[in-house]
Specification:
Blueprint (H helix, E strand, L loop, with lengths): L2 H32 L2 H14 L8 H8 L23 H9 L13 H8 L7 H13 L3 H42 L3 H10 L1 H15 L4 H5 L2 H28 L9 H45 L10 H7 L3 H16 L2 H28 L1
Length: about 375
């Protein structure tokens, strides 16, 4: 195999890995949305804050918090605890937790002393109990100071929750990669053999790969501007909702709302409700843009199929492949593909661009040599 042929095979494999890695990412996004993975991890995080034993999460208590009037309106119960709230503020979480404590009263969040009294009713070794008592002590009766410190403490919790979620997502991506490889018979050894033996197939994939390499990055390749814009707008809507909630607390949840402040409370309530509706609308827009992006990934996969690339199992081929004398080679080919695709789309996009750059130089050199001869 000469150098240029080897580059073409590598370029074709890089394109195949890239397309399947994009498909795996889309599948993961769909599963995460359908099962509300973020909401599930928030539920587990709340349980970890309320459990006396870290090894035994109190999921029932977490469900009670999520079903409280302070949080239940942010999501729906759904099937298997899905479609629940995925993001909460520190104050919403505190309200949801303490509203389930014995002795709770409607005006309990107006005074730091009352918050501490409720916090002391939480399970003795629960992390949130210790955190709230400590924050109340350091606030020294100042409710505004308590809320600022509460937000700082909650940010650390959110960062850790995000780290857990990302780690779990990596495991899921690896699992989906191997599932797709096994289902679609993406065998690296067989693919390399097809590309080496079929000049027409190789030429088509090289042409597709060179066009892909012209994109500056993955965002430009898939035209993710709409999805990214929708995501930014959703994040801004979440921030606006949280700010409106703070304004609502300030205007309507003081120890005593005087008549002179009734209008301010009404305005704050209106802004709070509008912010919540806007967040729901932006969330739906983000989901629509994600579906559009998924359709672009499907177009890339269809282009691979149209090139004549042989992927998928024929009738009875699976059993024959594993039972035959080439079973080990088939297993190795599938494993190579699984590990390769699990590296992710950004990795293979960068590899494809690098190989395409070398291939362009190599082709020009070969053309000059042929002309000279």
């Amino acid at each position: 195999m000469d150098f240029l042929l080897a580059l073409d095979v590598l370029l074709g494999l890089s394109l195949i890995y890239l397309v399947f890695a994009l498909a795996v990412t889309s599948i993961n996004e769909f599963i995460a949305a359908a099962l509300s993975s973020r909401a599930r991890w928030l539920r587990r995080g709340i349980a970890s804050l309320l459990s006396e034993n870290p090894q035994s999460l109190d999921m029932e208590r977490a469900d009670e918090v999520l079903d409280s009037p302070f949080l239940s309106h942010l999501g729906t119960r759904g099937v298997w605890k899905t479609f629940r709230v995925s993001y909460v503020s520190a104050w919403q979480l505190t309200q949801g937790v303490l509203s389930r404590v014995q002795g709770f009263k409607e005006d309990a969040f107006a005074r730091v002393g009352d918050i501490r009294a409720l916090a002391e009713q939480l399970p003795a070794n629960a992390p949130m109990r210790s955190a709230l008592i400590d924050l109340c002590a350091r606030a020294n009766g100042d409710l505004e100071k308590f809320q600022v410190m509460l937000d700082d403490w909650f940010k650390t919790f959110e960062d850790q929750l995000t780290a857990w979620y990302r780690q779990k997502t990596q495991y899921v991506l690896v699992g989906i990669s191997f599932f797709v490889v096994l289902t679609m018979n993406v065998d690296t050894i067989d693919l390399a053999r097809q590309l080496s033996a079929d000049p027409r197939l190789r030429a088509q994939l090289v042409e597709q790969a060179m066009k892909v390499a012209e994109a500056s990055d993955l965002a430009a390749l898939l035209d993710t501007a709409g999805r990214d814009r929708a995501r930014r707008e959703h994040e801004e809507a979440v921030k606006s909702r949280d700010e409106a909630e703070k304004g609502f607390r300030s205007a309507c949840q003081a120890p005593e709302v005087e008549k002179a402040r009734a209008q301010a409370c009404a305005d704050a309530t209106r802004r709070h409700d509008e912010a919540q509706r806007e967040e729901v609308v932006n969330r739906a827009a983000l989901a629509a843009e994600q579906r559009t992006l998924d359709s672009r990934v499907k177009e890339r996969a269809d282009a691979l199929s149209a090139s004549g690339l042989m992927i998928g199992w024929k009738s009875g081929e699976f059993g024959q492949a594993l039972a035959g004398e080439n079973g080990l080679a088939k297993l190795v080919g599938l494993l190579l593909s699984g590990f390769a695709i699990a590296l992710g789309a950004p990795f293979w996009f960068n590899v494809l661009k690098s190989v395409a750059s070398v291939r362009s130089v190599g082709a020009n050199v070969k053309e000059k040599a042929s002309s000279a001869g």
